[in-house]
Design goal:
It is a single chain. 65% of the residues lie in helices and 15% in strands. By secondary structure, it is of the alpha+beta class. The protein folds into two domains: 2-61 and 115-285 and 327-437, Outer membrane efflux proteins (OEP), CATH 1.20.1600; 68-112 and 290-323. The protein has a four-stranded antiparallel beta sheet with strand order 2-5-7-8. Mean pLDDT is 86; it is low at 1-19.
Length: 440
Amino acid sequence: MRDLLTSALFILSTALAAQGPVSLSLQQAVDMAAEQSYMVQGSKLEAEKSLAKIREITAIGLPQVSATGSLSNYLQVPTQVIPNFFGNEPKTLEVQFGIPWSISGGVQLNQLIFDGSYLIGLKAVRELQNRSVKELEQTRLEARVQAAKAYLGVLAAEEGARLLGESLPLVRKSANEAAAMTEQGLMESTDADRLTVQVDETENQRRTLLQQAAVARAYLALVLGLPTGTPIQLTDSLQPLLDVPTDADLVNRPFDPSQHVDEEVARTYVTMGVLNVRNKKAAYLPQLSGFINYQEQFSSTEFEPGNGSFWFPASMWGLQLNVPIFSSGMRKNQVKQASIALDQAQVQLKATEQRLLTDHLSQQAILISAQENYQTGKRSLALSKRIFEQTSVKFSEGMASSFELTQEHGNYLAAQQTYIQRIVDLLKARVDMHKALDLY
């Protein structure tokens, strides 16, 4: 799988650099979508954002260092009036206690020593990272499913155009023969016109299928995250993909919902809910932190910061304890809300499990029906083709009318359309079963 992915990405980069076509097998296409599609790119960025959030929360318990600094200069030093303690006259004195120039700078280190919420938070961030990884896997699964459907849609439309192209030579030959017999007076013009209309309708249907194939290729490029207009060459053929033995036996594959990525994601929400309850309960515990501070201050009547005689150091350390006592029921209700959210996550987990089991049973029934309908459509197509070819021979020999020929050709066209639709239904059912089994 890794080799296929590597080769797909190498082919992509080379093709884009050369502005040439991109050649892909079905497996390479689904692997490329898992890495290149726009939804996966968005999910990767979301995972990176979650990782940055994890590092942010982790940093709360690590040492925090901050620095401060200030510079002040009194344009006029404040004057204070105080009683005259030295005599009776004058009764008051005007003094200035301030210093015109003052500079201070300091560094403080803060360290969280104990916080129950932080300890629970460390476990929560690890689970958050696990959830982001699972959600990315979930997005990649959806991208693979879309790529497979788009790839197979192109092949189905091209197969329909090919089948229509097979019958065109016979219809054209019959129309030309009818036109010649009309000119000779051996056939009415209505019979020749009927065959001409049949040729035009067949060509129109073929053009429609080719246009659908072109639209499907454009959608495939979008799913793969390729620039609009990038030529894509599909290296896999339709029939070998229809005959893959492992796909034919998908209905018998055992299924364990606990291994499906959707249930794994749901379990992460339950785990996060458990940790959230513990986090809210940890709010009842005290919080202890410590700090160390060092600063120096310059004070002088002149601005001479280079003079060390006017710099005075100071330092201290301390502890801060915060003990929650009474919150008027706030913390209690926060715990209650977290417990309810946990119950909701557990209900969602159970619902996800049941949904996966139901989807699997439903896809089994759809796939069995699609396989049976495909075989029926394949037999009907072969029978209609044989009848049309025999009628065409009879028409050339004058043993069948143009009405019979156009009728059998119409039946053949209807069988072709039914067959192509049965192919589409079968391929879609197989892709959906792969998704239900989480096999992509």
